[in-house]
Amino acid sequence: MRLATWNVNSVKARLPRLLEWLAEARPDVVCLQETKCAAEAFPVAEVGELGYEAAAHGDGRWNGVALLSRAGLADVTPGFPGEPGFGELDSVGAARPEARAIGATCGGIRVWSLYAPNGRTVDSPHYAYKLAWFAALRDALVPELAAGPLVACGDYNVAPTDADVWDPALFVGSTHVTPPERRALAELRDLGLTDVVPTPMKGPHPYTYWDYRAGMFHQNKGMRIDLVYASADVAGQVRSAYVDREARKGKGPSDHAPIVVDLER
DNA sequence: ATGCCTATCGAGGATAGA
After folding, report:
1. Domain containing A197: what range?
2. Is residue A121 helix, strand or coil?
3. What is the domain count for chain A?
4. Among the four A35, A167, A207, A231, which has the fewest Cβ within 10 Å?
């Protein structure tokens, strides 16, 4: 089974690139993030022509996650139990969750496509929201992991180590590298999840994101913030994994590259 | 190292991303 995860930064704007990439890489299961489209606006027919079933969870303008599969797509779950929201409070004092998680069972694996909150700055309410979201995700994954094989893929918006950012000194005091964010990842791994680190196609660092500006991709000044966290049984079946930096090149790319994982199953 | 890009909504400029 070939599994992939990709923050496409708008599925509408990226549709030609996405379809081209699907036809070439031919993954069996794909986790998409930042689709930036409502569930009913997701290009189901277009990916269907390539043989994929699709499940989308969307807010419209922001966020949005989806799953594509040609290995079955059952028990689709938009969001997870206890997922915190952000913004205006409803009558019972709760904020509506954003479209940041979707799960489904594909080919015998429970697959989650995740888009963690950015956090903005450490003194922002968005940062507290980010940490609360990770804590709730951890709790929600406990019963999921007990049930069988699982992968939680996506844009975690956290660089696990200083080696995962091109210049750690520039990031001191910024989000994506703070100890509480890294602890949140460690707590997920403590549940029994393994960080499936992909092979970079170029250079020593498996970066998955490069800013659009100032020739960052060209200079390979990137970050590894897209992650594949696999349960022990799935991690043991990983044959290979790589960052497809070719997909970051050319006209109209996403600012993230896909991660492709080949499993012995 | 922020908003020098990019995308969205909507018709200009605000909001968001990491």
Report:
1. 2-263
2. coil
3. 1
4. A167
